[in-house]
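Next up, a chain.

===
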Amino acid sequence: MVSIIFASLAPSVALLCFFYLKDQYNSEPIGMVIRSFIYGVLIVFPVIVIQYAFQEEGLLLGPFLESFVLAALFEEFFKWFILYYIAYKHVQFNQHYDGIVYGVSVSLGFATMENVFYLLALGVEQAFFRALLPVSSHALFGVIMGYYLGKAKFSKKGKREKLKLLSFLIPWVLHGVFNYILHVQKYWIYFMLPFMFFLWYLALRKVKLANSKYFTNHSTEVKNI
């Protein structure tokens, strides 16, 4: 059991530290980051209950519905809900990059608990595969979700609702594509590798853009003093 918990936690901690340290200007309070992570852990339970109920009723079955609705829709919605109501509205959410930190934290909390269940069922030998694909993909979806929520928070009122919607829709679609590749492609590895490269490219670009937003805003404030 200890080995399973360690194997589940280690990749999440590594990824969280990576994105946390990418904040070039104003690191978030560790306590708030841990709190977001714990909320991410807790939302696994209602998601599992909902997914189990639909499966027992024979609803939302088939590769497309399972990929885009049963898994991606419910998981990304609960992560978005927690990120929005726990982090977005908090006073500590005061820079564009903060959305990425908290988005990754919530997502990796979810991925860690999900990983514990998978490794209990399938064995700790699955840990390397889980770290490379599901855990890292959850982190990257969190980056993208957090980027658009951060952008929404510091945008004009007219653009804010559209950006909030994008913060949910884009991770949902990407998550659905990720699941669908695993479901239906016989040679899934040939599709997954370029998709993961694309996810990393997109996420790191959002990291760079979010940091540049701070620099631009800070430079404007200095000029106005």
About this structure: The two ends are 57 Å apart (CA to CA).
